[in-house]
Specification:
Elements (H helix, E strand, L loop, with lengths): L11 E2 L14 E2 L5 H4 L2 H14 L10 E4 L3 H14 L7 E5 L9 E3 L16 E5 L6 E2 L2 E13 L4 E5 L3 E4 L15 H4 L3 H4 L16 E3 H10 L4 H30 L8 E2 L1 E9 L5 E7 L7 E7 L2 E6 L1 H18 L3 H12 L26 H8 L3 H4 L16 E5 L3 H4 L4 H13 L9 H10 L9 H18 L10 H15 L5 H20 L9
Parallel strand pairs: 1-2, 2-12
Antiparallel strand pairs: 3-6, 4-5, 4-6, 7-8, 8-9, 8-10, 8-13, 9-17, 10-11, 13-14, 15-16
Helix pairs in contact: 7-13, 13-14, 13-16, 13-17, 14-15, 15-16, 16-17
The structure holds adenosine-5'-diphosphate (ADP).
The site of adenosine-5'-diphosphate (ADP) has 20 residues, from strand 4, strand 13 and strand 14.
Organism: Tichodroma muraria
Protein name: TTL11 polyglutamylase
Keywords: ATP-binding, Ligase, Nucleotide-binding
Length: about 525
């Protein structure tokens, strides 16, 4: 640890909180700029809403959410409308403060009028979300899944998922929410940090009992009950890929601002914690994404009243050590060298897909996989080193097989049509002009309209300015970031959707947006003689 910085550059920087913990000019950093902001409850809900507007069926794994306080009237009106059209609908909602964690400030309500808007803590910006009333229960208890996901690279997009995760259990038997039990956190909230304080919390050295278990132990149980575990894995992989696709546009804006393209700089990777709830019908639902998931492998035990000791937690150790070990293996700067030598010898034999994953649902892996079983066994086989006199000894040969499995670009083909906002973000970044900014000024917006030839007799440049001012003012009035003035990416996306709707009236929204993106890319290509890097296809 170098709390006061370090002079000599490192290959890998392991920051505790964010990209900005140190000034880094080379090597690899374990955080992306802007990740913390991008996965906050409000920003995540906004990004998911944009995707739900474009692709409602593909993004139905995120509960319907509203942003408070600005969308309170909308929330009230929509709930009233849904209740009117279906009087038997008796919903419950969960209110979660923005930026909160560990269940902090969360409460359940039955009616929009129960939202607490007064008082210092309660008046924080928050997300109110439809509460999933019918979760899958194990031993009559609600539980959620923490899955670790490695975002290895943003451009090109590379995603890995750990094949095991944690299941965190409530400590009171679950009942569907009623006015009487709404406040019972040990029944409704699965947070470890809350349930540990319940008298019923069970620490266990075994991975398949107690209040924290491995996800694989749950899968075993489900499988023995006849559940389709392959389909469940395939759904979880889709959820993870789609969620990251929703986050990449914003991340790319932060990335180019902190690490301008074409200049020497570090590259980034990041381990994310995905919190997923399984519904009774085994449909996985995304609860949240954690930019700094806890990597503790110990837990506190109260030896005598008030006296605590840290003791090893075998369940945490089993899952988390593998995630960190594999992350380091995958970002290992010496690996490329070894890979080149290996490819010469054995070619590329891709590793098997994620354990238990449906191979029919998702296509075959691309031949780009780097590690291969043949290669490993070759190294382990006696005499193999004689065939490779110059190959460096591979420390990987002695390690267990990878727990992190590549899912992107492996399954890229199936999901590429969802990367529409990425292309809108590429246009936005193109017109940002001055590097180091994340917001578009009025001149940049005008240049975008002019270069893409979007104004005409029905849409004058004066109307363009009004659109810019209207949308930018509204976003800035509710924005959390007042450091820079101008139009943020989400505001640009809104303006872009608006233009697309105007131009291609009768099409569904995603086709309107796709048509406009295509048009802009072509007009810019004609102007610059080539396509934008992120818009190419
Ligand atoms: P925090 O960051 O404070 O932990 P979460 O969004 O993870 O906030 O929510 C805390 C807990 O509340 C979750 O672990 C889960 O048990 C429960 N929860 C959150 N959202 C929902 C929901 N929409 N439906 C049912 N339970 C939920």
């Amino acid at each position: 640890q170098f709390p006061f910085g370090r002079r000599l550059p490192c290959d890998i920087y392991w920051h505790g909180v964010s990209f900005h913990d140190n000034n880094i000019f080379s090597g690899q950093v374990n955080k992306f700029p802007g990740m913390m902001e991008t996965v906050r409850k409000i920003t995540l809900s906004r990004a998911m809403r944009t995707m739900q507007d474009l692709f409602p069926l593909e993004y139905n794994f995120y509960p319907r959410s509203w942003i408070l306080p600005e969308e309170l009237p909308l929330f009230v009106a929509e709930v009233r409308m849904m209740k009117d059209s279906n009087p038997s609908w008796k919903p419950t909602f969960i209110v979660k403060p923005d930026g909160g964690c560990q269940g902090d400030g969360i409460y359940l309500i039955k009616d929009p009028s129960d939202i607490r808007l007064t008082g210092s803590i309660q008046s924080r910006p928050a997300v109110v979300q439809e509460y999933i009333c019918k979760p899958l229960l194990v031993d009559k208890l609600k539980f959620d899944i923490r899955l670790y996901v490695l975002l290895k690279s943003l451009e090109p997009l590379e995603i890995y998922i750990a094949k095991d995760g944690l299941s965190r259990f409530c400590t009171e038997p679950y009942q569907e929410p009623t006015l009487k039990n709404l406040h019972q956190v040990f029944m409704h909230l699965t947070n470890y940090s809350l349930n540990i304080h319940s008298g019923n919390f069970i620490h266990s050295d075994s991975v398949n009992t107690g209040s924290k278990r491995t996800f694989s132990s749950i899968l075993c149980r489900l499988s023995s009950r006849g559940a389709d575990v392959k389909k469940l894995w395939s759904d979880i992989i889709s959820l993870v890929i789609k969620t990251i696709i929703a986050l990449t546009p914003e991340l790319k804006v932060y990335y180019q601002s902190d690490i301008p393209a074409g200049k020497p700089g570090p590259t980034c990777f990041q381990i994310l914690g995905f919190d997923i709830l399984l519904m009774k019908n085994l449909k996985p639902m995304l609860l949240e994404v954690n930019a700094n998931p806890s990597m503790r492998i110990e837990h506190e035990q109260e030896l005598s009243p008030g006296v605590f000791e840290n003791v090893p937690s075998p369940v945490d150790e089993e899952v988390k050590v593998a995630v960190i070990r594999d992350t380091l293996r995958l970002v290992d700067p010496l690996k490329k060298k070894r890979k080149d030598t290996h490819t010469l010898v054995c070619g590329s034999v891709p590793m098997a897909g994620l354990a238990g994953m449906s191979s029919e649902a998702l296509p075959e892996p691309t031949p780009s996989a780097v590690l291969c079983r043949r290669c490993q066994s070759l190294e382990q086989a006696p005499g193999a080193r004689q065939e490779l006199p110059d190959a460096p000894p591979s420390p990987e040969a002695a390690l267990p097989s990878l727990c992190l499995k590549q899912v992107f670009p492996k399954y890229a083909k199936q999901f590429s049509y969802l990367r529409l906002v990425d292309r809108v973000a590429a246009l936005f970044i193109h017109f940002l002009g001055v590097k180091g900014t994340t917001k578009l000024g009025p001149t940049g917006f005008r240049t975008f309209i002019r270069n893409c030839k979007l104004s005409n007799s029905n849409f004058s440049m004066a109307a363009v300015d009004i659109l810019y001012i209207d949308i930018t003012r509204r976003w800035n009035s509710m924005g959390l970031d007042h450091k820079e003035s101008g139009m943020c990416l989400q505001a640009f996306v809104e303006a872009f959707f608006c233009l697309a709707q105007k131009k291609y009236k009768s099409l569904p929204l995603h086709e309107q947006v796709a048509s406009l993106v295509e048009l802009c890319e072509c007009r810019l290509a004609a102007l610059h003689g080539k396509r934008l890097a992120w818009g190419c296809h």
